[in-house]
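Sanity check

After download, print the first record. It should look like this:
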Amino acid sequence: MARVVIDEGFCKGCGLCTDVCPTRILMLDPHRITPKGYHPAICTDEEKCTGCCSCALMCPDCAITVER
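Expected structure tokens:
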């Protein structure tokens, strides 16, 4: 099982990670806003994460780390 770690200090809520996730477990959190004014990405179900790292590779701000 893999774990997706998102550093909200770097996440700008661009949504690229949500588009590329093959299992569709990433989404932008509509209920929270970071101090910089963005809706951060969140992982909705870590048990479904395959550890493919597509989200981390796509993130332009290096805000995502996938731990296996």
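If your output differs, re-run the checksum step. Summary of this record's structure: The chain has a mean pLDDT of 96.
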